[in-house]
């Protein structure tokens, strides 16, 4: 599996035959070459990590950091603007060490189980309203456009005290900043500047007239953050808080409807919603490029020494199908528990908003099971189309009928 120095390196990310199936290479690399040399779309070389224990080790070890501008890290794509990874936001926010932990602790108070429980009724009401609007338009409908996308935007706008009437602009800015290949550097710079101006104005407004939202609370608590830091935090939460979850809602529903026995199992026992959400996160085969990490010293993982200056690509989605970590890992088992998947990463950079994402996924599923029990795909599962060139994987649309 390891190519010789004369052979071209395998290209990563790998192509999959359909939007919901994993590339065959994941299993091959896990078995034969768990730490592999691969070429990214840019032509730059990286180490691809695919086994569960190895991915968890790399993500949890503080010697691996997010690549920064000073590192000679591999670029994911040659036409990329660098996306959100090379943005001013990434440069302003603390990326590691005590400053990063302090930043997470301050924000983490907004993502507690107690706060999520308080948000649930409003989320459910909004989800029901969106389903009603979709039904009123008639079948077939696009569940991504009708429900999966607007709900997380509404929720995160509410948490940040931002008018959700501006959500189309956020959607565009997020799309540009999460794209790896679809926009030029000039387009990225323009989107980042517009988003920064908007969020800067929003923060000035919150200083003058505080509300019941995260940014107002940070200002009121006297956090010694510059406007640049508050702006970057607001942008980071808006991007992370809607695009990934919107895509995951659509993929979860698609997976559950692709084999209708799964949907029937949930209709028969709605108490399985929580474990079904976790299993959907685990078996997501369209998860994007994974996590990029950079090491400045030699490091051994999976029996291979990575030399200092290596860029490691951690494929959480491949690791989540590792038979060493999960029994019958290729099967979707809606009752699986415990389920220590790596969909939200691990270590100091594990997804801060995972309680929010989990709550949104659970609420959407509960509402759909209750209001649209006859829900089904309007096209064969293997005809679903994936979004190309995005840092996080997704479906272009999710055609359904009911």
UniProtKB/TrEMBL annotation:
Its cofactor is heme. Pathway: Antibiotic biosynthesis; vancomycin biosynthesis. Gene3D superfamilies: Cytochrome P450. InterPro entries: Cyt_P450, Cyt_P450_B, Cyt_P450_CS, Cyt_P450_sf. One of its GO terms (molecular function) is heme binding. Pfam families: p450 (PF00067). Keywords: Heme, Iron, Metal-binding, Monooxygenase, Oxidoreductase. Belongs to the cytochrome P450 family. Involved in the coupling of aromatic side chains of the heptapeptide of vancomycin. This is Cytochrome P450.
């Amino acid at each position: 599996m390891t190519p010789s120095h004369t052979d071209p390196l395998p290209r990563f990310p790998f192509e999959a035959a359909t939007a919901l199936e994993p590339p065959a290479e994941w299993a091959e690399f896990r078995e034969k070459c768990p730490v592999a040399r691969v070429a990214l779309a840019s032509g730059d070389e990286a180490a691809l990590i695919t086994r569960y224990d190895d991915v968890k080790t790399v993500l949890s070890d503080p010697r691996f950091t997010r690549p920064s501008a000073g590192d000679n890290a591999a670029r994911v794509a040659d036409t990329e603007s660098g996306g959100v990874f090379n943005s001013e936001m990434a440069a302003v926010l603390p990326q590691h060490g005590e400053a990063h932990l302090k930043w997470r602790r301050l924000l983490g108070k907004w993502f507690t189980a107690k706060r999520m429980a308080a948000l649930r009724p409003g989320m459910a009401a909004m989800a029901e309203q969106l389903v009603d609007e979709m039904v009123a338009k008639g079948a077939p409908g696009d569940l991504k456009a009708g429900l999966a996308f607007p709900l997380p935007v509404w929720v995160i706008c509410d948490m940040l005290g931002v008018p959700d009437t501006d959500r189309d602009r956020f959607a565009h800015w997020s799309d540009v900043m999460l794209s790896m290949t679809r926009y030029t550097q000039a387009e990225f710079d323009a989107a980042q500047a517009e988003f920064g101006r908007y969020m800067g104005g929003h923060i000035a407004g919150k200083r003058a007239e505080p509300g019941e939202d995260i940014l107002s609370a940070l200002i009121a608590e006297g956090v010694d953050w510059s406007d640049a830091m508050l702006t970057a935090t607001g942008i980071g939460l808006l991007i992370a808080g809607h695009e990934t979850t919107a895509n995951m809602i659509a993929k979860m529903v698609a997976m559950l409807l692709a084999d209708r026995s799964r949907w029937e199992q949930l209709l028969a026992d709605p108490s399985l919603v929580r474990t079904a959400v976790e299993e959907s996160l685990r078996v997501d085969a369209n998860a994007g490029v994974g996590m990029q990490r950079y090491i400045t010293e030699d490091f051994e993982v999976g029996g291979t020494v990575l030399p200092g200056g290596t860029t490691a690509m951690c494929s959480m989605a491949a690791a989540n199908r590792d038979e060493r970590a999960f029994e019958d890992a290729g099967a979707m088992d809606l009752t699986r528990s415990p389920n220590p998947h790596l969909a939200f990463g691990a270590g100091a950079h594990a997804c801060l908003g995972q309680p929010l994402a989990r709550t949104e996924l659970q609420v959407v599923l509960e509402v759909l099971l209750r209001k649209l029990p006859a829900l089904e795909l309007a096209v064969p599962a293997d005809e679903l189309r994936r979004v190309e060139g995005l840092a996080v994987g997704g479906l272009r649309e999710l055609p359904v009928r009911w």
